Amino acid sequence: MNFFRSQTMGYYKLIIPRESAWNVMNELAELDCIHFVDYDPTLPMINRPFANYIKRCDDLLVKLSLIEHEMKKYQKKITYCKDVNFLIKNFKQLIKERSKASHTYLDEIENDIDKKHQQLIEQSTNMENLHERRNKLIEHKSVLLKGEALLGQSFFQPANYVAEGYVNLQGKELDDIKILQGSVKFNYLVGVINKEDQIRFKRIIFRITKGNAWMNTMDIESDQIVDTKNDDAKIIKSVFVVVYPGGGGSNVITNKLNKICESFQVAKYTFPENNMVFQEKLRQIETELVETRNLLEMTKNQVEAYLDDFQRIYQNSNCSQLEELKLFLVKEKYLYTQLNYLRVQGSVLYGSIWLPQGADIKVDQALREVQTNYEGLPTGQLQISPPEGTRPPPTYFETNEITWGFQEIVNTYGMPRYKEINPGLFTVMTFPFLFGVMFADIGHGFCLLLLGIYLCVYNKEIKESDSLMKHALIVRHMVLMMGFWAFYNGWIYNDFMSVPINLFGSCYEPGTVDDPIHKDEQVWVQKDESCVYPFGIDPVWMCVPNELTFMNSYKMKLAVIIGVIHMTFGIILKGINAIYFKNWIDFIFEFIPQIIFFTCTFGWMDFLIIYKWFVNWTGKTDQAPSVITLMINMILAPAKTVDPPLWGDGQSEASTQTAMLLIALFCIPIILLPKPLILNSQNKKHQAQGPNGLADEKKELYQKINEDSEGTQENSEIHTEQSGGGGHHEEFGDIFVHQVIETIEFVLGSISNTASYLRLWALSLAHGQLAEVFFQMCLNGGISGGGFVGAIRLLIGYTIFSMATFGVLMMMDVMECFLHALRLHWVEFQNKFFKADGYAFEKCSYAKVMQDNAVPKEE
């Protein structure tokens, strides 16, 4: 079972001649079954033999990304690769048909990309310069036209200077200023400024000149000026004219205004002194604009011609040339990265690999194909070898579309040890169920179920569309199962958006009260003592005054029962792991006392809850004992007679509880003491053998693992060393402290973890109460009101009800229940048996790395 435990791994040595290293690695990377072991993880990649090839690939990918940016800028459609395996075969065929060495194809691509990239950069630079020139001409033309409209013809006429001094221009119109032109010399400042800076510019001008200046602006048409540094985005600019008194160009106001223009990066222009020069300048600018537009059009056509080559889909390809080149470079970079994991000695590369059981046959066949397909090239050799060091094999599980999401939940917390039981197998079943317990509602669960069915049925259509739903396709089966269990548990609670459904007919009917004091109270009488509601809770419980009390008690006890069963199963898995690895110390002195302790405490509490449910307390509810009180008295008054008893006279129940308590207390020192003492004794024995004895023992140990890793004592010893639980170099004090921590964590954790499962009750209660509040506040008034006004209230209320239900319950509450189910698996369930200190089997795969890069990045 490759999903219950990791696939069996074999350790091998790979020997490759350097002259055929590219060809051998190219064949091996297509197998998707090899995990390369880095010969020196501390050595930086830049100091490895093939680092230069990786750098070349990175540089070329950067150039292609710039070209891709230009293609998107010019709205060129890029056809992305949907089948990378087809492309891998094309690359292999293309390289095979060449008469040159296989690895030299990278040189050809590099030269081609460099040449086209340089040409594109030159043309893009020319485009940018032409746009800048065009912008300047448009600005200058706008200054002339807008300035004439603002200043008028009178400013073309020279004025006599009479006196220079302070002239208050605040609040004056331009016509009033023209009257003063004969007596006062005016200077002007004309330029172009960004519209967004216009208001700040006006305020600073006013403050600097203290109102002794007149300023006006006019906008330039928004579609004329483009920003060459921001993908030719349109810029809105304005022409401004500042008129101020002053005789020369070196007075104080002029200097201040020039500094302000520099700080705002304002383009300043001079205004012609007479109308003849004005018209001549306007004609000159118009002529240059026409020439610039023609050059821009020609350059744009040349750039698009270059980009069309990258857009084109060539024969025997399934994507654009740009995408094909990018994926080839990704493939080459990945190939040389894997080669860097091998040690180079002379003209030979040596490396270590992990292979799943049976994969060595595929590797041998691939090595023979290298010799067959490339005549004259030596091929590599594969040799079985004992592992080096104490690191165990990697963990590898085969997943599919259904199990992938649940396995990722486990892997996010930690990777299982090699051959350790995989929690992902049980998470597939328990995670959606626990989510359903918290999100239990017939209506809401059905909506989630419909979403899951829609994602599964229309999987292909959604994947090929631009819908946002395609991001949820990867977890569609998880959504389907979560919706199913929420729908199912909704029927158990008989809750349809806070409204019960009387599907099978209630076992109760309205009755009468003989007591005149309580005659107006509604009572329900059981039709028949043998009547039982067939499925779920009788809907009458949603209509009684003690509905909340009853549902709270039921859901709380159900949450505790589910939690204890879930954690007990986790402890049992720990015992199964110990048996598999033949770790009898853990089995006898940890698993057995732990399962007994848990059964005698919280298992006993579950028994009391279920037993109490089976007793008919009709007419004697005051005699029903509280389970919480029984559990408290079990600790504080163990020998005291139980009153009221759950069964018998209370003495037998007290004796049973006392026995359970004594057994549980006796298990604590068994968990604490024997294991560290035995491990300390084993450590002394290993130290007496000396380092040579240890080395020989490890060599034999690894040999056995490689021959058969289906569960051995040696395998368990490796894991013990790795986790620090009894390694050969640990002192007794360290071992004992570790065991003390483990014991305290288990005993106290049993209490806290059981209490943590009450979140199943709390979130179910919160979900039901929120649904009831939304129903009462939004719909109940309209339904009970009736008439035209009631219909209007119902229409408005239903709109609010729908939005609140979708936003709060179908979005926020789904995420909340998901996270709480996640926590119950990570903390409460997995910590009973799951060490999570393994490492993943990372297969060398062209298909995976190319598929990851074939998906276009979101803008």
TrEMBL record:
Where do the TM regions start and end?
425-454, 474-493, 558-581, 587-611, 659-678, 795-815
Provide one Gene Ontology cellular component: vacuolar proton-transporting V-type ATPase, V0 domain
Q: Which GO terms describe its molecular function?
A: proton-transporting ATPase activity, rotational mechanism
The organism sits in which domain of life?
Answer: Eukaryota
Q: Which InterPro entries match?
A: V-ATPase_116kDa_su (IPR002490), V-type_ATPase_116kDa_su_euka (IPR026028)
Answer yes or no on keyword Transmembrane: yes
Question: One Pfam family of this protein, by short name?
Answer: V_ATPase_I
Record keyword Transferase present: no
State where the protein is found.
Answer: Membrane
Keyword annotations from UniProtKB, A to Z: Hydrogen ion transport, Ion transport, Membrane, Transmembrane, Transmembrane helix, Transport
In this chain, the stretch annotated as Disordered covers: 707-727
Stated membrane topology is: Multi-pass membrane protein
Regarding protein family, the annotation reads: Belongs to the V-ATPase 116 kDa subunit family.
Function (record text) = Essential component of the vacuolar proton pump (V-ATPase), a multimeric enzyme that catalyzes the translocation of protons across the membranes. Required for assembly and activity of the V-ATPase.
Extract the PANTHER family matched here: V-TYPE PROTON ATPASE SUBUNIT A, VACUOLAR PROTON ATPASES
Name of the protein this chain belongs to = V-type proton ATPase subunit a
Please name the taxonomic classification of the source: Eukaryota, Sar, Alveolata, Ciliophora, Intramacronucleata
Its gene name is vata9_2
